[in-house]
Automatic annotation (TrEMBL):
The lineage of its organism: Eukaryota, Viridiplantae, Streptophyta, Embryophyta, Tracheophyta. Its main location: membrane. GO terms for molecular function: heme binding; iron ion binding; monooxygenase activity; oxidoreductase activity, acting on paired donors, with incorporation or reduction of molecular oxygen. The keyword Iron applies. This is Cytochrome P450.
Length: 452
């Protein structure tokens, strides 16, 4: 009887063992499928906050390099971080960034609700920080159709041209008011007035000057500084008091960085000026329509955007659902931090001498400017949340740099140097605003008189 009972229990035992083996295999496979990105050692409560520093983009780049695999990659393409109570995925490789904003674009199109963004972004309802959904799509369509479409930009070209001419005229007047046509110029306030007036003309048809423009600059820079700053409440949702950091990031900063690079590389400035003198000559002010005929100028702007991106960390995305990036599991609610600064200096991403200012790198063998798809850059982001104002920004930066080089001789000044230190915050201004000696070229006064 015992033998009969044993033989009767054998199938049940075999079934139990088989089920256990299958269940173990499934769980093991699921663990492999849900494997998260590698993560550095963390501390209780702080997570990885102790590994961060100023400037943030450099600290994150160093962290990625420290976690890279020798002989495989200089920097870890993706890292899993814990910033206080928040999960974050740090992306430091171009391929991983493209995957985030193409294949995983819909899953990662959310925005984290951060304290300063909620206050300054009207409860996270503006186009930059609005949650992905119907409201964001309505804003996107409005901006794309009513303000930033090709037809709208073309219709406002005369306004932008007038503001370029106004800045040149103001510089000319200030330079010629003195005993000699030489003047030390701090560019940032003048560039801010130029950019804000272009925006105001497009929105409400008015412009600001003098003290009004200066006051607006204070308001905008303070707002951007606060908007760029994380708070304790962002990292520990139970707490709601802020620790603010500095920073600002607008088109004026890119123009300022471009002029600083040209001052440090006078041969590059001579090439830009010679190109403009050849194609535009000196009878009129360079215009937006001329930019297509100025390939070296285009390369200077591209190289500035690569080397000195004023948005070194792409505005944070948030995972709206579980997904994978680079083969690693990303949980819903994870904040996505893409380090554009690191990607655009990555020697493994087809950049020769990545820390050097070399505009020629964007020219192909035929002397034509390489297309955006051919280079691992993302200064305006990628995917559906790519900056909608990219076309306007490129027009503003290119036309203003061209006008400053066309109309004035620039010099650092005797015994002076340019401080290329990067400012703090999530944007990347020059820590010390650029100041340089400005001397009008002989034809500028007559050129402006003929154009009015």
């Amino acid at each position: 009887m015992d033998a009969a009972a044993g033989s009767a229990d054998a199938p049940l035992l075999l079934l139990a063992v088989s089920s256990l083996v299958i269940l173990t295999a499934i769980q093991s496979r699921r663990r492999r499928v849900l494997r998260g990105a590698p993560s550095p050692p963390s501390l209780p409560l702080l997570g990885h906050l102790h590994l961060l520093g100023y400037p943030l983009h450099r600290a994150l780049a160093s962290l990625a390099v420290a976690q890279g695999r020798p002989g495989v990659s200089a920097a870890a393409p993706v890292l899993s971080l814990r910033l206080g109570a928040r999960r974050a995925l740090l992306v430091s490789a171009h391929a991983a960034a493209v995957e985030c904003f193409t294949e995983r674009d819909a899953a990662l199109a959310g925005r984290p609700r951060l304290l300063a963004r909620g206050v300054l972004g009207y409860g996270c309802t503006d186009i930059l920080w609005a949650s992905y959904g119907d409201h964001w799509w309505t804003l996107r369509r409005f901006f794309s159709a009513e303000l930033l479409s090709a037809s709208r930009l073309a219709a406002r070209a005369a306004d932008r041209r007038a503001e370029v001419a106004a800045l040149v005229d103001n510089l000319l007047r200030d330079a010629t008011d003195g005993a000699t046509p030489l003047m030390m110029v701090t560019l940032r306030p003048r560039l801010f007035e130029f950019v804000i007036n272009v925006m105001l003309r497009a929105l409400i048809g008015v412009s600001l000057h003098g003290s009004d423009a200066a006051r607006w600059q204070e308001i905008v820079e303070e707002s951007v500084r606060l908007n760029a700053a994380p708070s304790v409440g962002d990292l520990y949702p139970a707490l709601r008091w802020a620790i603010l950091q500095g920073g600002t990031g607008t088109s004026m900063l890119t123009i300022e960085w471009a002029m600083a690079q040209l001052l440090l590389h006078p041969e590059a400035m001579k090439k830009v000026r010679a190109e403009i003198d050849t194609h535009v000559r000196t009878a009129r002010l360079v215009e937006e329509s001329d930019i297509a005929s100025l390939p070296y100028l285009q390369c200077v702007v591209k190289e500035t955007l690569r080397l000195r991106p004023v948005g070194p960390i792409i505005p944070a995305h948030e995972a709206m659902e579980d997904c994978t990036v680079g083969g690693f599991h990303v949980r819903w609610g994870t904040m996505i931090l893409v380090n554009a600064w690191a990607i655009q200096r990555d020697p493994a991403a087809a950049w020769d001498a990545p820390d050097e200012f070399m505009p020629e790198r964007f020219l192909d063998d035929g002397g034509k400017v390489t297309t955006a798809a051919a280079v691992p850059m993302l200064p305006f982001g990628v995917g559906r949340r790519r900056c909608p104002a990219e076309a306007m920004a490129m027009r503003l930066v290119s036309s203003m740099v061209a006008a400053l080089v066309q109309c004035f001789e620039w010099d650092v000044g005797e015994g002076r140097t340019i401080d290329m230190t990067e400012g703090g915050g999530l944007s990347m201004p020059m820590a010390t605003p650029l100041a340089a000696v400005c001397r009008p070229r002989e034809f500028v006064k007559s050129m402006l008189s003929a154009s009015t």
